[in-house]
Description:
Chain A is mostly helical. Chain A contains 20 helices and two strands.
Amino acid sequence: xxxxxxxxxxxxxxxxxxxxxxxxxxxxxxxxxxxxxxxxxxxxxxxxxxxxxxxxxxxxxxxxxxxxxxxxxxxxxxxxxxxxxxxxxxxxxxxxxxxxxxxxxxxxxxxxxxxxxxxxxxxxxxxxxxxxxxxxxxxxxxxxxxxxxxxxxxxxxxxxxxxxxxxxxxxxxxxxxxxxxxxxxxxxxxxxxxxxxxxxxxxxxxxxxxxxxxxxxxxxxxxxxxxxxxxxxxxxxxxxxxxxxxxxxxxxxxxxxxxxxxxxxxxxxxxxxxxxxxxxxxxxxxxxxxxxxxxxxxxxxxxxxxxxxxxxxxxxxxxxxxxxxxxxxxxxxxxxxxxxxxxxxxxxxxxxxxxxxxxxxxxxxxxxxxxxxxxxxxxxxxxxxxxxxxxxxxxxxxxxxxxxxxxxxxxxxxxxxxxxxxxxxxxxxxxxxxxxxxxxxxxxxxxxxxxxxxxxxxxxxxxxxxxxxxxxxxxxxxxxxxxxxxxxxxxxxxxxxxxxxxxxxxxxxxxx
Amino acid sequence: xxxxxxxxxxxxxxxxxxxxxxxxxxxxxxxxxxxxxxxxxxxxxxxxxxxxxxxxxxxxxxxxxxxxxxxxxxxxxxxxxxxxxxxxxxxxxxxxxxxxxxxxxxxxxxxxxxxxxxxxxxxxxxxxxxxxxxxxxxxxxxxxxxxxxxxxxxxxxxxxxxxxxxxxxx
Lengths: 512, 170
């Protein structure tokens, strides 16, 4: 019979300590359900505070666990991998969630839909993202992806619950429904792909796939074929989640209809989870999927084409958007394209590390900048849904000079102007692409960045150079949102001005 | 293919699976569609028996036909205008092409050995017992971690479902 280990044996064998950031967050969230139950009328203060504290606890645990983590170790019997990649992305996810929670309270109070469940679902979703970046097995990737996504479907439809049938409630419901259907659809691709990869390689464990993949490729049998088809389906499934062309159709509607803090959160954590899984699966497990000996990984061309399409379509369609949230949705598609460039670069042997590091720095920069931009958009939105258009920010520089300045810096960073974090990210990604021999892709990236300047700068021009209709925008934000903007601004500037900082942070990362 | 119990069973279950599937996508009546889905799922359960996985076959019948199909039936009965779906398939040709393409790709993989490819090693003829499956699910070297993670996922989904369904006016 099976010997059951003692608790102490279990803790050592499973290396439970290195999973603490994620497991603590889950445990904290489940306790928060009870806090929300007993807090009564005070819950509008206690639940968000508890959520922030939980994120803080997880953050501290993450610093302890990953501070010396130059080495790579597995945990939970090979299902979970604890390395610098996990540690870094955990921090990005936690900061993103903190900013989103800070934005949320104000938004929910203003819309009259404050509910404790909101924070619980937010934290569960982020815990899912944290498990996803640490997933070392295709089954964990799938379950963690669902843990990341299902709360987001509900959060996207959150506005519909209390609001009685207004236009915003309908849009929010539509957003949640679309996200749910497309999400379920993409999960089916992911699972089918994982099943084919399992059929071909006989394992779902990522390092073991790496071990058996060369033999499978050499065999040139049906298994080889199914490994390639399975990889393609995995790319499709995760491509939906990170919203790259041609799997991006749902993004504008979902991002526009969802409550703004939810949009901000899902535009960051869902992409982090998806890209982490893509990097782990493609770079770690399938980097040996070579169709030509000594060549580049077989998936590189596909990823390059997806990246180029995403860059071009995302940036060009964003130009014609009048609604700021829609514009930021297309901009987020475009940014997924830049991260795809890094992913493509990782397919060339020898540049996997620099490309992964570039992707991580890009994700960090994108997280601060994008959340900041959404926070500013949220402050000028009105409860009835108005105020979110590009014309509504005209003259913002006169009515709210500091807010306009923050927005300007976020727009500069999204464009990739030096001294902002966005520049550092783009620089590292393009450098990795050139090093990997993908000069054409890097050129497309630079050119589309120039195109993106057009629509980002239009926001700045509207704020500074055009006269407003005379109506001053009311100050809608509370101290929490101001903090969210401040933190995002600080991150954007610190990582932009002290540019070696970000690359030092990721210098340990190696997943190849 | 020689004519024995297994090949006859295969043909029968294939008719069940594919026939049920065709029934699901062609009927305009949601309730009839559910019944066809049960037929199709029953055929899949038959495949599991043929593949020496009787436990999975039982689970397939208990969970999919016994629970999920019944759930769908309830959902259908709560839906208005069950039998009068007016919308036609507006994208018949693209979806037909997409499913044909997927079918051909998978078919290519199966027939590769016939066209000169190497046929893969045959899987060992072990019968996975219920006990093996149970061990794989909760043994520490099995899938206990995804199993636990799935329970967290269910908690989140349940909180969300209660939240969505709750009537705030009450």
